[in-house]
What we know:
Chain A is α+β, with helices and mostly antiparallel strands. Chain A has helices at residues 2-17, 19-44, 55-86, 88-96, 101-141, 154-180, 184-189, 202-221, 225-260, 262-265, 268-310, 312-319, 333-349, 394-401, 462-472, 494-509, 520-574, 578-617, 623-657; strands spanning 324-328, 354-370, 373-375, 386-393, 411-418, 425-428, 431-438, 454-460, 483-490, 516-519. Chain A has three domains: 1-193, no CATH class; 202-320 and 521-658, no CATH class; 360-489, no CATH class. Helix content of chain B is 38%, strand content 25%. Chain B has helices at 48-55, 78-88, 104-115, 119-133, 148-160, 178-193, 205-208, 233-249; strands spanning 4-14, 21-32, 37-41, 63-68, 71-72, 89-92, 166-170, 197-202, 213-218, 221-227. The chains are: A alpha+beta, B alpha/beta.
Amino acid sequence: MSKxxxxxxxxxxxxxKNSKAYVPYIITCIGTIIMFYNMCFLASAKxxxxxxxxxxLKMILTFGTVVIGIFSAIFLFYTNxxxxxxxxxxxxxxxxxxxxxxxxxxxxxxxxVLTGAISLSAGLAGGIxxxxxxxxxxxxxxxxxxxxxxxxxxxxxxxTPVLFGAIFAINFIYNSLTVRLSKPVELxxxxxxxxxEPKTKLFQGIVGLLSLSAGYYIAxxxxxxxxxxxxxxxxxxxxxxxxxxxxxxxxIAVLKLLRKNKNYYYKPxxxxxxxxxxxxxKRNAAGLANICILSTAVIVMLSSTVSLYIGVEDVLRTRYxxxxxxxxxxxxxxxxxxxxxxxxxxxDSLGIERRNVLNYRYxxxxxxxxxxxxxxxxxxxxxxxxxxxxxxxxDGYNKMYNANKTLEENEVLLYEYxxxxxxxxxxxxxxxxxxxxxxPAFEGDGNTSAMMINSFYLVARKDDLQKIIRxxxxxxxKGKDLAYFYGFDVNADKQTQIQLATEIRKGLxxxxxxxxxxxxxxxxxxxxxxxxxxxxxxxxxxxxxxMATDLINNYKQIAEGxxxxxxYEIMQKVGMSREEVRKSxxxxxxxxxxxxxxxxxxxxxxxxxxxxxxxxxxxxxxxxLFALCTLSxxxxxxxxxxxxxxxxxxxxxxxxxx
Amino acid sequence: xxxxxxxxxxxxxxxxxxGNAVKALNNVSFTVDEGEMIAIMGESGSGKxxxxxxxxxxxxxxxxxxxxxxxxxxxxxxxEISSFRRENLGFVFQDFNLLDTFSIQDNIFxxxxxxxxxxxxxxxxxxxxxKRLRITDLLSKYPYEVSGGEKQRTAVxxxxxxxxxxxxxxxxxxxxxxxxxxxxxxxxxxxxxxxxTILMVTHSVKAASHAKKVLFIKDGEVxxxxxxxxxxxxxxxxxISDTLTLIATGGVRNE
Lengths: 658, 255
């Protein structure tokens, strides 16, 4: 009992004596725990389901949690290993003063328990507080009905201590092994033992290059949004592996190459920075890769959620080309007349004017595409080859565009909405159609934009449309017919629009056919809930990651400062002026700081296309808007970054100056 | 003209809140001729290192002047001081002060690179210096891979490569074993014979016995000086020992 107390007391004393090193370490642990808890919180919060009941959001968040967990483990392990290296001398002294290694291990055990307990309790408390504070804050910033709120998910509260407990345990095992495996003399020399120059890891570099190129390739050459959805994660993982490998081995290889170039290397400006960067990269590459990946994540998340939120109106327009949209998926000519009458009577009776009226008969067929051949039957799992064919009748088209195009039998006009259809003819099963003309974009039923597969808009004669129906269903057992769309804008407030849509529905119900009647305003609210929720999530994670990157960066630089102090003293003795020291420090800190940001921007440049594809799934096709959002996010992020840089460089210089 | 002239040098340290003033140096004057090898001896705390710091322009004196080649170095501005130091002085320290991140070769190059010397010129100088100091085979190694003696020879090479007017050595044998010490001192004699002026601060009698002139400092003042003249190293050793004994036992001044 008293012995345990003795070791505990020693451990407390040690931590106090080493507070200069341990305070930043504990703060880093707390920060990491806060971040992990918050990710866990988001991934397991029940109320999150209210934003979107589809599992993909949850999947993304769970994925994020796993990634952050891995980050935390690697990062804390590194931080710890440098800490213990610095303290080797101290342990050596204990050893020489008569303490056995197992006693040292006991002290280390208590130290770990103490730091772990402090970090975990403060981290968890901080995490819970932060998650609530952020929600409160964001409630104020964006006045949307965010539906998730004040809960403390049990899962998050359980997983966080388990994970970090394990990390601390591993660190403890590592620490006691380093002490156990070295002789007292080695321990005494400990910190002063020269660090070996890092080796160039060719294999790792190649792996990094390959996976990065593969990731970039996927990002650049994925055409269909649906494919993008599945491949995106693969690309993300590949790029992450690539970033890690290239930061750790590529950077060193490049620096060594620079060192070989005598005329470059032996310049005052480069001499010191290149040689010390080699060591700096060895120590920091993993941390920098972390920062790079986090930065990329922040920028992607913020820019896409912000542009979704800003673009809601756009999205609504794409999804609902007119304020009021009415239609039926198959309807006879006779019923079309009746439908028209109901719509017109209802609007008239409410005293509303119909504007931009758009009505036409159409037919939507989903088929499996092989170049210009389409098959209606097939393996339904081959989703990525499927295409939607959207046929509009020629009369409707002419009416809509005030055109008087004519078509012979089996002739079509074509517009490629999404995907490619080469040649000048196409076949549907055995029906051959000649593409008479490729026409510019035309408006169609908004439902197509919600689909993620290849989509083609075609114009054909009504009798040909009937033929296509028969091709798809030879006996016409299902009583299929052409579909009908009737859309128009109104100049009325939201209430009236909702009333109108409801009235029209009532009228159509009596017809006894399948129908729909939507007002854009009806959907607006649900759109805002979804995209507002995503927006909120984006900002939450964005802030979280910005804090994390800043914390990591700051800590790393300050830790470096203590290491570099001695080296700069030597250089000053040998004839380096203070100004030169300052310049050299600046150039190195700048490199270390901005390399991750630069890499993140490159990642984003490559990812831009695939993200626009992903946004199409959310109906956002406004690429310039997204580009603008991305640019401004990068800008804002850089401002934060530069602010932290200035602060860090100042502290660093102060430390080095002594 | 003397190569180095130290005139009435004074240094007073005051604690931060104006507490006790400690006189580290009091009216120290001496001269060094070109091509001389001089040792400054004294016990720990006698002010040797303070004196060296003044001569190296690493610290400013409270009073007095230091002339190197006729130039008063105590008044050189902060901007020029580094390049002045680089061009005129070479340093050898007790703890070597080599940079771990540089190979032996790059450590030697450091002052030349800082001065902006072209690579060909550096390489030419390196070849001769390395040969003289017998470290040619070590050039591509790193400081942590070589012995203490080899480290100190590297430091000497770094000091020599700029062709300095004066080499300042602060306890150069302090971290070396006796064999390495002998070797280093022999080396110092060799380069001194080639005309290099060396000023060495030490409390090793053996190291001092290799010098042509030995200055004894006690409590911040020059207490005594002896000249080697035609003595052998052994005779000089005896002379120094006697002086030290004198200082330690009865030689108390101002009391």
